TrEMBL record:
Major enzyme class: transferase
PANTHER family the UniProt entry points to: SUA5, THREONYLCARBAMOYL-AMP SYNTHASE
Gene3D superfamilies: DHBP synthase
Domain YrdC-like residue range list: 77-265
UniProt subcellular location: Cell membrane; Cytoplasm; Mitochondrion
Membrane topology: Peripheral membrane protein
Species for this entry: Saponaria officinalis (Common soapwort)
Protein's UniProt name: Threonylcarbamoyl-AMP synthase
Biological role: Cytoplasmic and mitochondrial threonylcarbamoyl-AMP synthase required for the formation of a threonylcarbamoyl group on adenosine at position 37 (t(6)A37) in tRNAs that read codons beginning with adenine. Catalyzes the conversion of L-threonine, HCO(3)(-)/CO(2) and ATP to give threonylcarbamoyl-AMP (TC-AMP) as the acyladenylate intermediate, with the release of diphosphate. Participates in t(6)A37 formation in cytoplasmic and mitochondrial tRNAs. May regulate the activity of some transporters.
Catalysed reactions listed for this entry: L-threonine + hydrogencarbonate + ATP = L-threonylcarbamoyladenylate + diphosphate + H2O
Gene Ontology BP annotations: regulation of translational fidelity
InterPro entries: DHBP_synth_RibB-like_a/b_dom (IPR017945), Sua5-like_dom (IPR006070), TC-AMP_synthase_SUA5 (IPR050156)
Subunit structure comment from the entry: Interacts with RSC1A1.
Lineage, highest ranks first: Eukaryota, Viridiplantae, Streptophyta, Embryophyta, Tracheophyta
Length: 287
């Protein structure tokens, strides 16, 4: 039995005795009793149609609000403003990226950053990456002067996290990666999260949407037990890139790179780095 039928059965339809003096429009008439029966049938049909519309609305509503587990919305342009407002008010949201699902908050908010660590059960000494909307935004949060021209524009947007020195002029919240003078930066190839970062006017602290030490999430069902901790969970469907996450590459040393974590598009990333004449940092260089 579908929801339309259920609603129709729940709504009482009162038995009406139609007078031969009441027409379809409810005015005095000398029409036959048959007119009253026709009117009743028409009203029943109209009621069924109205119930179907209500049911359709409720079906959509059920897909948005899930009681007791958090608020789930589609990751579409129509809901970007809701995400931006949540970020600006210091809340944590769950969003799709170009690799896996992540938890995001304002990277310049002490309380929001603390909240992400609490949700994941993560040690405060474990670093978080940040997400910005566009490549030129990176210089607000990290040092890029030493990098070859066009390197970042070639790597990003894409499934790569570039690790850079924060520098004294970085406006990031000091509680983000305390004791570490570098930060991982992402510009995902995903319009939804980039529009959120752009609209928030800040960087987003970004980490995988899972408990610390658990597998990454490629669908919102993978972290359903954590929905209740988010202002919104934005559903972008099942993500196709697998659970590897982004490739993390350290670019803090001029002229060199170091792969910290091989992930999505590793070979493509290596090709770009070498095309820009960067050399891989070996173990002797790092000691």
């Amino acid at each position: 039995m579908n929801i339309s039928t259920k609603i129709t059965e729940r709504l009482p339809v009162r038995e009406v005795l139609f007078s031969p003096f009441v027409s379809q429009r409810g005015v005095l008439s000398t029409r036959s009793p048959h007119d009253g029966v026709v009117c009743l049938n028409r009203q029943r049909r109209n009621l069924a149609g109205a119930c179907a519309k209500i049911a359709s609305s409720l079906d959509s509503f059920d897909g948005i609000l899930r009681k007791g587990t958090g608020v789930v919305l589609p990751a579409t342009k129509e809901y970007t403003l809701a995400a931006i407002q949540s970020i600006r008010s210091g809340k944590v949201i769950a969003v799709p990226t170009d690799t896996i699902y992540g938890f995001a908050c304002d990277a310049c908010s002490r309380e929001a950053v603390k909240r992400i660590y609490e949700i994941k059960g993560r040690k405060l000494t474990s670093p978080l990456a940040i997400c910005v909307a566009d490549v030129p935004d990176i210089m607000r949060f990290a040092i890029t002067d030493h990098l070859p021209q066009t390197l970042l524009e070639t790597l990003l947007p894409g499934p790569v996290t570039v690790v850079l020195s924060r520098g004294d002029s970085s406006i990031l919240e000091k509680s983000l990666n305390p004791g570490v003078d570098s930060v991982g930066v992402r510009v995902p190839d995903n319009d939804f999260i980039r529009n959120i970062a752009r609209g928030s006017g800040s960087a987003l602290a970004l980490t995988s949407a899972n408990l610390s030490g658990h597998p990454s999430s490629v669908s919102i069902q993978d972290f359903e037990n954590l929905w209740e901790h988010c202002a919104y969970v934005f559903d972008g469907g099942k993500l196709p890139m697998g659970r590897a996450g982004s490739t993390i590459v350290d670019l803090t040393c001029p002229g060199k790179y170091k792969i910290i974590r091989p992930g999505s598009a590793r070979e493509h990333t290596l090709a770009i780095l070498e095309r820009h004449s960067l050399q891989e940092e070996d173990s002797a260089d790092s000691t």
